[in-house]
């Protein structure tokens, strides 16, 4: 689970919201939930054993200290074969509240509907069935309608179930984000959600669930995630805890916010970012740190990379980065179980540079390995090179000298190695050349590996005498290609536990 906003903003979002007294939500006894003077439970399921049955809005007054939420997304529908859809996601989290005196925070609840079932005729060879409709939530994250799919081996038609809808909690910020271009009081912002399950047949392209398998949790407080225990429509439920020490609340555990790492600095280097920070003054419960960097403007967390310091309580580490991009960088504090218990404010880097390519043969840090037999290669043919001890996930420039000619780039694997097949230029001069891999090591420092090859089958030296040197030209696909490799290959420095 990826937290999408800074700690301070998230607390304000979940705790304050748009303030104004509301009686839209009634308990079973007809009393507005904001007027209840004790710890109470609530649920959007009218059949649940709860003190308050919520319709759309949960108003909470300043008398309450926390809400323990449980969100379950709608499950996917069956396909026409009777195969069940996938269950929705489940998100559980306890969030402390800090509502201004004499004011009420309003939480808008959108339980996700279950996906409809696919139907078919008695003869599967006839296209006479119908797919299930996607579940609805009344907000964002509706499930996708199912569709028919054809099993080619049997030449039979089947119909997918609809995807379940996402269950979500939203607030109406007094001042919406500037990019929305909307007036205050007209923009709902989702702060918690649990995804809807895929309908049966989704593997054949039918019935994707709302939320597409992700959780949203704009909160600095840890939560736990999983799947719904019972299929069906989504439900939002929980416990609202009163701020009185004499009220027993055995079922509510409020996890206090641990002070977060401070003075975060991010220095953009060649294909990498050096991240440093200082420990908080109050570091009770902090057993380690994890830094992260996300490309500015990315539409998902797929490009986010992570690193941990060499020592558990160290205060620096290095992440790989894609040249040409800028990144938002932050640091998380972790408890003894590796769970996140605090997150710093973000800082933004300058544009990431590509590894430096020298105009002349650089000094070697080590030896590049090649499959050129006895160090001999033929112009226009392929050579496989291998290097090690680079920063995992970073980009390595591959160049042939003496006149530098780009042979492409490679992305370093999680063990610090890379292997790349390069093609020597057909017009390469006969004689001795050097193949060079330029990148950075795990500390973000320059690393250069070199191997000598003797080239034949190219151009005689006399034929190229007097030709002007036009300079090094990097491969034009570096930013896009490296981004694809990093995101598609999943080359993250540290695997992040998803709670998304």
Protein traits:
single chain, mainly beta, Immunoglobulin-like, 3 domains, six-stranded mixed beta sheet, 5% helix, 34% strand, flat, disordered C terminus, transmembrane helix, Ig-like_fold, secreted, membrane
Q: What report would you give on this structure?
A:
- InterPro entries: FN3_sf, Ig-like_fold, LPXTG_anchor.
- Residues 131-144 have a biased composition (Gly residues).
- Residues 116-146 are annotated as: Disordered.
- Keywords: Cell wall, Membrane, Peptidoglycan-anchor, Secreted, Signal, Transmembrane, Transmembrane helix.
- Residues 1-24 form the signal peptide.
- By secondary structure, this protein is mostly beta strands.
- The protein has 3 domains: 7-242, no CATH class; 262-354, Immunoglobulins (Immunoglobulin-like, Sandwich), CATH 2.60.40; 366-473, Immunoglobulin-like.
- It is 5% helix and 34% strand.
- It is built from 3 helices and 30 strands.
- It has helices at residues 7-15, 461-464, 478-489; strands at 40-43, 52-53, 57-61, 64-72, 89-96, 104-110, 148-151, 156-159, 167-171, 189-194, 216-217, 223-227, 235-242, 262-269, 272-278, 288-295, 305-307, 316-320, 327-334, 340-343, 347-348, 366-367, 369-370, 376-378, 382-387, 395-401, 405-411, 418-423, 431-440, 446-456.
- It has a 6-stranded mixed β-sheet with strand order 2-1-13-4-5-12, covered by helices on one side. Strands 22, 24, 26, 27, 29 and 30 form a 6-stranded mixed β-sheet that branches. The protein has a 5-stranded antiparallel β-sheet with strand order 3-6-9-10-11, covered by helices on one side.
- A hairpin with a 5-residue loop joins strand 29 (431-440) and strand 30.
- The longest helix is centred in the C-terminal third of the chain and has 12 residues, at 478-489.
- The radius of gyration is 29 Å and the shape is flat.
- Residues 1-34, 182-186, 245-257 and 464-500 have low confidence and may be disordered.
């Amino acid at each position: 689970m990826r937290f999408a906003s800074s700690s301070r903003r998230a607390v304000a979002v979940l705790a304050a919201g748009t303030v104004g007294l509301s009686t839209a939500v009634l308990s079973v006894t007809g009393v507005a939930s904001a007027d209840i003077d004790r710890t109470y439970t609530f649920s959007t399921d009218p059949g649940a054993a709860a003190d308050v049955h919520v319709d759309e809005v949960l108003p909470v007054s300043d008398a309450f200290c926390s809400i323990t939420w449980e969100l379950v997304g709608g499950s996917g529908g069956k396909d026409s074969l009777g195969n069940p859809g996938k269950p929705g996601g489940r998100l559980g989290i306890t969030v402390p509240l800090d509502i201004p005196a004499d004011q009420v925070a309003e939480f808008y609840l959108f339980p996700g509907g279950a996906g409809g079932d696919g139907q078919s005729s008695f003869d599967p060879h006839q296209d006479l069935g119908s797919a299930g409709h996607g579940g609805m939530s009344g907000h964002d994250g509706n499930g996708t309608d199912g569709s028919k799919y054809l099993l080619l081996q049997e030449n039979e038609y089947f119909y997918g179930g609809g995807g379940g809808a996402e269950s979500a909690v939203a607030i109406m910020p007094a001042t919406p984000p500037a990019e929305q271009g909307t007036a205050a009081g007209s923009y709902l912002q989702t702060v918690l959600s649990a995804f809807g399950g895929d309908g049966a047949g989704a593997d054949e392209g039918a019935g994707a669930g709302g939320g597409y398998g992700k959780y949203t949790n704009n909160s600095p407080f840890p939560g736990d995630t999983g799947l719904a225990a019972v299929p069906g429509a989504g439900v939002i439920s929980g416990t609202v805890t009163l701020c009185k020490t004499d009220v027993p609340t055995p079922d509510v555990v409020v996890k206090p916010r641990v002070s977060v790492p401070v003075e975060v600095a991010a220095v953009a280097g060649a294909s990498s970012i050096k991240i440093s920070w200082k420990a908080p003054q109050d570091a009770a419960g902090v057993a380690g740190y994890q830094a992260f960097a996300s490309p500015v403007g990315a539409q998902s967390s797929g490009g986010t990379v992570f690193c941990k310091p060499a020592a558990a309580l160290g205060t620096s580490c290095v992440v790989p980065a894609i040249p040409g991009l800028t990144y938002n960088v932050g640091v998380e504090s972790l408890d003894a179980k590796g769970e996140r218990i605090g997150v710093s404010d973000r800082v933004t880097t300058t544009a990431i540079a590509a590894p430096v390519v020298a105009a002349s043969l650089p000094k070697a840090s080590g030896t590049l390995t090649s499959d050129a037999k006895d160090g001999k290669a033929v112009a226009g043919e392929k050579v496989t090179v291998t290097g090690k001890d680079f920063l995992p996930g970073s980009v390595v420039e591959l160049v042939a000298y003496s006149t530098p000619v780009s042979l492409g780039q490679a992305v370093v694997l999680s063990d610090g190695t890379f292997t790349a097949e390069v093609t020597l230029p057909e017009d390469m001069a006969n004689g001795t050349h050097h193949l060079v891999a330029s990148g950075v090591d795990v500390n973000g420092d320059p690393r250069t590996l070199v191997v000598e090859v003797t080239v034949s089958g190219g151009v005689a030296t006399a034929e190229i005498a007097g030709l002007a040197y036009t300079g090094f030209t990097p491969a034009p696909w570096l930013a896009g290609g490296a981004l694809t490799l990093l995101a598609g290959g999943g080359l993250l420095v540290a695997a992040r536990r998803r709670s998304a």
